[in-house]
Amino acid sequence: MNKYAIIVAGGSGSRMKSDLPKQFIEIGGYPVLMHTLIRFKEADPSIELILVLPEIQIKFWEDLCEKHDFAVAHQLVKGGKTRFQSGKNGLAAIRKDGIVAIHDGVRPFVSPEIIRESFVVAAAKGTAVVSVPSKDSVRVDGHAIDRESVRLIQTPQTFQVSIIKKAFQSPELSTFTDDASVAEHAGFEINLIEGSYENIKITTPEDLEWAEIILKRNA
Predict the structure, then answer these.
(1) Alpha helices of the chain — where are they, by DSSP H?
(2) Its domain of life (predicted)?
């Protein structure tokens, strides 16, 4: 079975209040994005890594790889104007059938165990989307809803290649918030698997503080 991982990183750093895009900010001595790629190689060295970056960031990334002597093999793909278009560009780089995990480049703490489980479940059921229960009370339009029914969606979101490629043939809609929503719109069932609260998405300065704590705890 061919295994692929599309790592999408298109952040600008605006919410991070930084001139440096968040995927390139260093934690533990390496850019966030390098930690993410390493996690997938640790999970399964046979996974073919496809990194989707804005074209204007590719040279900067290549320079970072040289600076840090980063040797994890990956294919670079130019991103699109939107997250949907970037995902579609990443999928276009896959020529054979198999299983593909699509992951946020700024989620560097996904565990190898979660990655491996996502491939197993997607191979058996077609889709596997990582999620965790909500810790907080939830209200929609001012009305309380049962917290037990709420799941917070993470990545990776893993699919049989044939399924997600078919789903991405749909025109882009504003309701597409992630790859799972694209697949669901195309009529495919979404299977949720257990994630981890440690699998944070680094978006704001506070997230960087949590990232350093996680690194120290796992050292």
Answers:
(1) 32-43, 55-67, 83-92, 112-125, 161-167, 179-185, 205-218
(2) Bacteria
